[in-house]
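Hi,

I'm pasting everything inline rather than attaching a file, because the server keeps stripping attachments. The sequence lines come first, and each chain or strand is labelled.
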Amino acid sequence: MRLVLICLLSVLSAGAILAQPFDLVLKGGHVIDPANGIDGIRDVAVSGGRIAAVRADIPATQARKYVAVAGLYVVPGLIDLHAHVFGNDSHLFPDDTALPTGATTVVDAGGSGWRTFEEFHRTVIAHSRTRVLALINILGKGMQGGEKDQSDTGDMDSAKTAETIQRHRDEIVGVKTAHFDGTGYTAIDRAREAGRLGGVPIMVDDKIFTNTGRTTREELLDHLRPGDIHTHMFNDRQIEMLDRFTGKLQPYMIEARRRGVKFDMGHGAGSFLWTVAAKAVAQGFLPDTISTDLHATSILAGQPDMPNCMSKMMLLGMSLADAVLRSTVNPAKEIGRYPELGTLGVGSGADITVLDLRKGVFAFKDAWGAKRLATQRLENAVTIRDGILVYDRDGRAFPVWSSAGEYEVIP
Amino acid sequence: VKRGVVMLVLLAAPAGAQEIYDILLKNAQVTDPANHRAGRYDVAVIGNKIARVGHDLPAAHARIAIDASPYYVTPGLIDIRTHFDSEAGGRNLQPDHHCLPNGVTTAVLAGAAKKMGPAKTRLLAFVEPEYAGGIENVAGILADERTLDRALKAAELRHTIVMFEGGEHSAEAVKRLRPGDIQTHMYSRQTPLAPWMREARARGVLFDVGHGADGFWFRIAAPAIRQGFLPDTISTDIDAASILLPRADMMTTLSKFVNLGMTPEQAIERATVNAAHAIRHPELGTLSEGAVADIAVVEVEHGQFGFLDSGHGRLPGDRRLRCVLTVRNGAIVWDSDGLSAPDWIKAGPYTNFK
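And the predicted assembly:
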């Protein structure tokens, strides 16, 4: 009798294991997966670090771990195209800043150069749970020191930069030039040459003082190629995005976009202004990519993490689905990682973000410190990176302590 | 005599009326146990000091006046156990963006940081017994079971306290702690409530939370709190491992205690005045007039929330603390809701903007 019972139990438990093909199921959420045209209630299953299924009604019994996410939005892990996780004094470590705010991939914007990339890899990339990619600085020493240090054209070696790109194709996705205070276009042109040799786009910042002999128009139309990225797009102090007198979008912005130049938000501590963004968006000029420029200063000021930046664009009229597109698919495409990143397609790596669209009255501050009130705010609720649940604001993936017995650390 | 008092008050009033406040928090729910204040007050800051805590302070006399009526206003929080170390595997775990958004204006590092950039947060440290550096920022000596002897000796020599991290044999070791010494990780798996704890507390040994990745378990804390064994101090023990899943930041940690049955005032007391006295900095953790202006403005949100312990067991809860504004040394260093910010329409031209 006892033997029969044991046999029966073994069969039952084997059956239970067979009935649980998934490591994790997110149940009842509203999936927004622009790459696959999904915008509705679906369950999402994860197995072996990959998206295993996206469909209605995956039974919870088929999963070892089940997370109830009804009322929340399930989207591909957010990609922050403009982050700072190495190099200058105010860089942040990604795991304690990106993962809690739903960014599963960050692209370090120019912290390292060809002289310092190995150190970047050793000290940050190799230690991060967050996927860390890099736009390598055209400056060999990366983003160090003040503007004078960062304007040293003697340290801008296109060939050496391209060699480093070729050696680290898994991590380096482009070239960055920023904070260039010299005259002329040396920095942009050296970066573009490195980009050409390495087969990657370049990202250029807003450092275009007319008194240094450069104009936005020339930079965009004469020096950037299709696919190159102009960041800090709403920084109107240096980028002449709007006509100063009429407030009208400059024709060369439209022309540059038509030619394939990409425009990136890059909020940061200085580059998102309500007065500029409101006018540009009202004229239909949206950012191709939503990104944070999160660093030690901006994180305490405008708090431009990814959900914050997406909320700000939604305040200006962008739909949630569109904000997701510009935070997942678009950045993935621009860095040549689509559809490897930015989708919830079955078989993709399981980087997933679960967003809570809260209703209420919320204030959002721009880089000048002016606030604008809104009636909704996105907040990150759950982050899954490489199939592993790494952040869970409300502990919804875990059992209530009083009914869980003498548990050790529950994975 | 009575008339004399009235005269003094009348004389004092015009002096106050001529003050210009840099920051005025109006009609706040003030929690300042050091001064036995719990109720509606206005709190005024001039320069880097608390200038006045009183009633009917005129908003017209303030450069920045904030309606703080929906919020608790408390002394800047003191986290007596943290791990901020820029050298930990390149993790560059910096104090400011973890402390200031949590209302923490003073953080005590467990073990002196090897390399720490300049921070706005006031940083102190519990140091190893062998530490030979200056005393200025030393809050006490760190001890585990292995180093307790040396730590006690070093503490005697330096006239300071020991923070003992506990372990398998805490019951024996704690007998050797002196009044004022601190046992942290009080709700760890190895230390369910036992008579030796009450005995130690009766002798003046302090018990600290030290949440972290392994120091805080609901199955230990809940029954202990039910039986009245509350922490003396609430600290986070925050490190790279405890930020993400158990969420050991200060606001979340305090929220856990509120949902375990403590009042917000009880929780705040343990992260302000109690913490200040535990590390022998009684000038901190208070809103006394003349004290350095370290202030936290805290909202208690109502809703359905959940909280995890170090083992990832979940505590459902209906309240959550959120820090909306932090003042450190008289400066607003965190203002998540833009309470001190102008509305963009009224902000006029964005001038003087670098």
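Confidence is low (pLDDT under 50) at residues 1-15 of chain B.

If the labels don't parse on your end, tell me and I'll reformat.
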